[in-house]
Amino acid sequence: MQRDTTKRFYAVHSWVGAITAVLIFIIAFTGAVSVFGRPEIKTWAHEVSHVPAELDPLRIEQVLREDAATVPEAYLDNIQVLMPGVRRRPVLSVQFDREVETADGRTEHHIIRFDHDPKTYELVDRLEGEPREVFENEPKDLADFIITFHADLHLGDPIGLLLTGLLGLTLFASIVTGVITHRKVLKEAFTFRPFRSLRLLFTDSHKVLGVWGLVFNSAIAFTGAFLGLAVVLLLPAAAYVSFEGDLDKMVETYLPLNEPQKSGIPAELKIAEVLSAVDQPENGPIVSAQLLTGTDQAGVAHVYTLAGDGIGGETHRYQLNGTVLESVTSQFSQLGGAAGPILDAMFPIHFGNFGGTVVKLIWFVLGLGTALLAVSGSMIWVERRVHGSSGSLSVASYRRISRFTVGACCGVVLATVTLFHLQLFVLPQVATTQTWLMGTFFGSWALAIVWSMLRTNDYQTTRELLGLTGAAAALVPIANGFVTGNHLLNVFSGGHWVVAGVDLGLLLLGAALVVIALKLPSQRPLRKSENRQSASPSSGLSGDLAYPEASTS
Amino acid sequence: MVWTVLSLGMMLVAAKLLAGNGRSAAGWALAFASAAPLVAIMNLAKAVFIWLALLGLAGFAVTLATGLTNRSQGQQASAES
């Protein structure tokens, strides 16, 4: 390849990275946390689900019948039972859905939802309205907040989804231009020289993270771009081409609910038999079950499970009179062709929820690697401009960019950890959970950015913010023990394993951040040659690096 | 779970071989061979995703560890001289 072409690719890599680095860090970090969002952090957030409830199909069927007896008959044709502690719900929810015709001839859904304690099955809440209205009015927790922030930065559909989808594409562009620019991949994969100079530490870290995480980052970027853009651009575009813009018609055509024709012979509502049939070791945990025309002999049940042997979640379809229709189908795979399994795999590959806790841990660590890849690239960009010959802006401008990067990146980690304390001490006592989550997260994040912008020494600011975040994270398990009584020391007697896992993770993360904060230099380290000119010979580290007494900022 | 951890262990050894032995064919062979148990117990696509991620993690860990220990080796060598 021509030298000029390589230079052009490098320029694209450098500028795309510089512009998007902070956003990529934010998305990648919250994505890494989101890997454990559902159900682990959600389980941690709700004391009622700390100890997992045994699936009791007969009791669930009884609750279903009791709830059904209190709603109008028109709501009984579409019933969903959402299992506690598996994905989105800390409680057992039974939801009745009815299609209502509006004045202008359209149809819209109206739901009645009953929330039950997952162990005692007592009714704890009853919500009614349009699905969106019910969703917006229900209490939110930190898991919901972090996952939504990762998906659309809380900017909603379409702006947020469009932005995160485009960021996936820019990450992919950075990966491609990075691979073209760095052609000595094998050599760079094994080169890490942390003690030579600051710039080598940044560049080696960036290359090692980039090369070893190449496959993971490519998969994350591609699936992230797809998930972000699918709803906003891809599906409407497909509907425009093939269904004259009618998105609902397209969804009905390709993903039919297979609503059965009523036989006219009444039947008693039942779900226990179907749940018992699906609750087998070879299947993943049951997320939800849907009964269509459940009060008729021709009624059908769809039971949705997490991934079992396959990559994606599965749908088990049963005739309620006892006949098995289809034991297992994936969602898009039923379309046939090569695209179905690929579409089914998009979500699990992105969130790493197809192979148990070990895969989730790997995804979490590699996700943090993606975040560090972005921030190390940004550091290289700034370092070359503040202490090198690149760039056309003043040094002061690059320092401001550097301070903002430190505040925004360290700040988002601090803000995320702050939410754990908010979840423990405030959210169970307030009704306006979303307002509290927004205020605390964006407030603490903004404070970190302001603090960083007011300081002149990035290195000291990084240490302070990381140290504070580490201390806050390490305190979460202790606070959790005081508030809920469930902590690491009584996990064997209490059986709250998921809670203990989250606590342990936070404790380790907190300790690691405190150690890193203590180890980091408080000022920019200089090479010996630089140091001889500008600093006291007695200061700093042994070896190639030394830290001057005087501030360089 | 057991096979995933075992695969990670084998790939750590492979990555170390690759890092310290001039990117040897034996290292690559061991790295690829570690995918076998995963493939045997899972469906192929799932195993490939897990294995590629594990390889990335193992390689990254070994390169980092090698880089960090090089400093102490260098200090030891200079002290001896």
Task: Explain how this protein is built.
The complex is a heterodimer of chains A (553) and B (81). Chain A contains 19 helices and 10 strands. Chain A is an alpha+beta fold and 553 residues long. In chain A, the strands form 2 sheets. In chain A, strands 4-3-2-1-5-6-7-8 form an 8-stranded antiparallel sheet, sandwiched between helices. Chain A has a two-stranded antiparallel sheet with strand order 9-10. Chain A has 3 domains: 1-46 and 142-254 and 339-391, no CATH class; 54-140 and 256-330, no CATH class; 392-520, no CATH class. Chain B is mainly alpha-helical and 81 residues long. Chain B has one domain (2-80). Helices cover 89% and strands 0% of the residues of chain B. Chain B has 4 helices and no strands. Chain B has helices at residues 2-20, 25-33, 35-41, 44-80. Chain B starts with a helix and ends with a helix. The model of chain B has no long low-confidence stretch (mean pLDDT 75). Classes of the chains: A alpha+beta (553), B mainly alpha (81).
